[in-house]
């Protein structure tokens, strides 16, 4: 990496830090403008120094993006004079804001903050879009959203303004978090640790309720009234938690330690409200309330064992006896109104448990546990007994072994284990579907896939379409993929992965302009407007150099999109200027 490239990469960190301070009204930050200015200078200076150090010392190990965010947050939150409270900042005896009062920050402003953070997450190497896991999480998330809407927790304005998008983070720690503007993060470590979809629903319902109740907006508003620089530290701390829980939590907790006691009480009230609302949402969505109890048990046990950093969720969502007692009380009341389970519902619950065990295994394998761990998973799958393989634990072991073997490029072993799984799950349609997707993945990687096995009529889920597209692209059948994905992106224009695959499909057909335009749309979907505009201008350049390479309709679309994206770039630059 060149010096200039390294410096540019590190300056992203300084830019993110500066932008996080823009959430505070300017008339309330006049007293600390010198501090904010120094903060930006320090951030950019450190960014440049780090960039030049690693560029000039290539033998040194470079920190991942989130590690560098963490380092800057810690430096900013502990360096004098920034770590010192402003005179009188914490001495006022202002009353606690009620949870029902309106927050000052508007949904549109909160969405802008969230988009800036989301753009950073998209650029992080640990962000992942695994279609199978995304579909599984969405199968839990969408019923929660519907229940929140039906209960009146999610109003029409928030639903329209916010993103309601979940990021999967390749990280083995147990964590989930909500960001401004309706963006949510889920670590693979959480999916691999929870024992059922009900436990995962308990966590997601809690995070959803933080957003529907405008907790983040209220927190930003209160922090901007008391300690504006802390907003930046807390948002960046949330990002840093994605990779380094100890340091990220230190940034957040260090900032909170400087706040007044009323802020800490406010946070506890928010947690209790999210518990209460989230519990009602998950019940109405059809999940078992026992998921809350079992999840609390896991968190409480981790807390008692002096959490070693693998449960950062505990730091941003601290347990206390009052929360646990209230949860137990709600469970007892809910149990009185639950009808006895029918045989059909018990069968569905058993099937759901098996499917979750498989998805937990997938998350564990995809979290990059290391080559030795992958070999161990394969060995355990091969050594499992026949009787054990029919249980949820045995099925999970086989699934992990098959996927791990494919990651190790031992495709014959992966195919044998997948075939064994198909035999075991013949009477479990949801899990059998997941295994067939796994087999499609393995055969595509092994180069043994046959086009005759792919039936678009049966491709009803996003994972079906994405994995089938990858398989057909491997066979060079770009036209079939393009025909199917054009329909998908028309209905879901923010699906970056679909646009990326569509770009590949056009490339196979030597349709360069359409391929470049699809690549530009993928950049737009990931909020990278400058990169998208570069690609659209490249497409316009191709059309000028070879007018016959694109028809009138395609050329008109590219010109129109270039104007639209150019406006987005200018609006973003103008907003940055206003914020400064």
UniProtKB/TrEMBL annotation:
<keyword id="KW-0378">Hydrolase</keyword>
<dbReference type="GO" id="GO:0004222">
    <property type="term" value="F:metalloendopeptidase activity"/>
</dbReference>
<keyword id="KW-0645">Protease</keyword>
<dbReference type="Pfam" id="PF01435">
    <property type="entry name" value="Peptidase_M48"/>
</dbReference>
<protein>
    <submittedName>
        <fullName>Beta-barrel assembly-enhancing protease</fullName>
        <ecNumber>3.4.-.-</ecNumber>
    </submittedName>
</protein>
<keyword id="KW-0862">Zinc</keyword>
<dbReference type="GO" id="GO:0051603">
    <property type="term" value="P:proteolysis involved in protein catabolic process"/>
</dbReference>
<feature type="domain" description="Peptidase M48">
    <location>
        <begin position="157"/>
        <end position="330"/>
    </location>
</feature>
<dbReference type="GO" id="GO:0016020">
    <property type="term" value="C:membrane"/>
</dbReference>
<dbReference type="GO" id="GO:0046872">
    <property type="term" value="F:metal ion binding"/>
</dbReference>
<keyword id="KW-0482">Metalloprotease</keyword>
<dbReference type="InterPro" id="IPR001915">
    <property type="entry name" value="Peptidase_M48"/>
</dbReference>
<dbReference type="InterPro" id="IPR051156">
    <property type="entry name" value="Mito/Outer_Membr_Metalloprot"/>
</dbReference>
<keyword id="KW-0479">Metal-binding</keyword>
């Amino acid at each position: 990496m060149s010096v200039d490239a390294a410096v540019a990469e590190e300056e992203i960190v300084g830019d993110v830090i500066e932008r996080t301070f823009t959430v505070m009204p300017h008339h309330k930050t006049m007293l600390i403008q010198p501090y904010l200015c120094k903060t930006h200078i320090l951030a950019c200076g450190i960014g440049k120094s780090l960039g030049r150090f690693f560029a000039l010392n290539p033998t040194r190990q470079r920190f991942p993006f989130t590690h560098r965010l963490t380092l800057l947050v810690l430096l900013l939150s502990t360096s004098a004079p920034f770590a010192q409270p402003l005179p009188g900042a914490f001495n006022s005896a202002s009353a606690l804001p009620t949870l029902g009062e309106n927050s000052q920050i508007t949904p549109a402003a909160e969405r802008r903050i969230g988009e800036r953070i989301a753009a950073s997450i998209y650029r992080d190497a640990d962000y992942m879009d695994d279609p199978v896991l995304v579909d599984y999480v969405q199968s839990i998330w969408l019923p929660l959203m519907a229940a929140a809407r039906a209960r009146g927790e999610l109003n029409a304005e928030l639903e329209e303004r916010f993103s309601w998008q979940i990021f999967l983070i390749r990280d083995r720690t147990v964590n989930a978090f909500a960001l401004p503007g309706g963006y949510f993060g889920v670590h693979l470590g959480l999916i691999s640790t929870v024992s059922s979809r009900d436990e995962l629903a308990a966590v997601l319902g809690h995070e959803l309720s933080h957003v529907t109740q405008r907790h983040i907006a209220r927190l930003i508003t209160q922090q901007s009234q008391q300690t504006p620089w802390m907003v930046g530290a807390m948002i960046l701390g949330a990002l840093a938690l994605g990779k380094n829980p100890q340091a990220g939590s230190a940034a957040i907790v260090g900032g909170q330690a400087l706040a007044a006691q009323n802020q800490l009480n406010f946070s506890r009230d928010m947690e209790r409200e999210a518990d209460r609302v989230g519990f009602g949402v998950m019940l109405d969505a059809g999940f078992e309330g026992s998921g809350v109890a079992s999840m609390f048990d896991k968190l409480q046990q981790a807390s008692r064992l002096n959490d070693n950093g693998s449960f950062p969720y505990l730091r941003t969502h601290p347990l206390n006896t009052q929360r646990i007692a209230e949860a137990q009380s709600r469970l007892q009341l809910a149990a009185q109104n639950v009808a006895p389970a029918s045989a059909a519902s018990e069968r569905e619950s058993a099937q759901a448990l098996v499917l979750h065990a498989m998805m937990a295994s997938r998350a564990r394998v995809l979290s990059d546990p290391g080559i030795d761990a992958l070999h161990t998973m394969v060995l355990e799958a091969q050594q499992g007994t026949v009787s054990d393989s029919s249980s949820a634990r045995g099925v999970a072991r086989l699934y992990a072994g098959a996927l791990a073997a494919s990651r190790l490029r031992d495709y014959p072993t992966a195919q044998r284990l997948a075939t064994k799984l198909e035999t075991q799950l013949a009477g479990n349609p949801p899990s059998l579907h997941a295994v067939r997707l796994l087999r499609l993945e393995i055969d595509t990687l092994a180069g043994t896939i046959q086009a005759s096995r792919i039936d678009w009529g049966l491709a009803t889920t996003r994972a079906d379409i994405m994995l089938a597209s990858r398989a057909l692209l491997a066979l060079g059948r770009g036209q079939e993929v393009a025909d199917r994905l054009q329909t998908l992106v028309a209905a879901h224009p923010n699906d970056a992965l679909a646009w990326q695959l569509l770009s590949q499909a056009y490339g196979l057909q030597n349709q360069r302009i359409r391929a470049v335009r699809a690549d530009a749309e993928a950049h737009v979907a990931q909020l990278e407007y400058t990169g998208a505009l570069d690609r659209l201008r490249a497409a316009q350049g191709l059309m000028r150099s070879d007018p016959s390479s694109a028809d009138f309709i395609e050329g008109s679309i590219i010109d129109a999109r270039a104007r639209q994206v150019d406006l987005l770039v200018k609006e973003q630059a103008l907003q940055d200027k206003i914020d400064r």
